[in-house]
Amino acid sequence: MLRSLYSGVSGMKNFQTELDTIGNNIANVNTYGYKKGRVTFKDAISQTLVSATPGTSAQQVGLGSQIGSIDTVDTSGSPESTGRPLDFAITGDGYFRVRDGNDTYYTRAGNFYFDNNRRLVNSEGFAVLGTNGQAITLKANVKSFSVATDGTISDQDGNTIGIISIATFQNPAGLTKAGGNLYTTANSNAGQVTVSQPGVSQPGQKGAGTIKSGYLEMSNVDLSEELTNMIVAERGFQANTRIITTSDEILQELVNLKR
């Protein structure tokens, strides 16, 4: 069979993956703390027709393309004012830490709440962790509170209720998406700052960003960019289908030679 037939198939598969990624980005254009994905391609193995000799270059024919990587673009989104005291946005590097049982997750979505046990939790009910590694809990006598840029939560008398912790990573793009605006560590190379636990810092210290109360970080998806990429991917997909159609026509001509 023609090599171009299989090259076209590989191109279609890859552009389909890119379209899937673009579609997911567009679907999350209004998701707080969302980090967009990006697909990169690389060429597949090449078939050598004539090996290189002194003074003569090799003759090679490529056999299509393949997915090089699907990256998470870890750039900050714009902060949006909400006026809600329990909405937090991180200005700078780092992630909030939340815990579900023995599992710790990381997130940039700072829409938090107080549950029935007066614990600070995210929308999934996971406890937001302080710098001491414990859940931040309001005492029964607390009637009001305030949040400083360094993550310190204080009651109406100025007493410290807890300090929100920030985790930073040498390779934040290596975090694995777990759904629900949450990430887990996989290839993130551990944190680069240390306070009470590896990779954990008080906001504004040792490379960690500060906290803005009353704001939420928007998605870093640029809709105009995604729509442009979608057009390019669509045309790439169509071009590869044309390769398959043309290869099929050539094969049809070869079959007709028998007549």
TrEMBL record:
Keyword Glycosyltransferase attached: no
UniProt cross-references to InterPro entries, sorted A to Z: Flag_bb_rod_N, Flagellar_basal_body_rod_CS, Flagellar_FlgE/F/G, Flg_bb/hook_C_dom, FlgE/F/G-like, FlgF, LlgE_F_G-like_D1
Transcription is among the record's keywords: no
Main location: other
Segments forming domain Flagellar hook protein FlgE/F/G-like D1: 89-154
Domain named Flagellar basal-body/hook protein C-terminal: residues: 213-257
Pfam families linked: Flg_bb_rod (PF00460), Flg_bbr_C (PF06429), LlgE_F_G_D1 (PF22692)
Superkingdom assignment: Bacteria
Name this polypeptide is given: Flagellar hook protein FlgE
Lineage, opening ranks: Bacteria, Bacillati, Bacillota, Bacilli, Bacillales
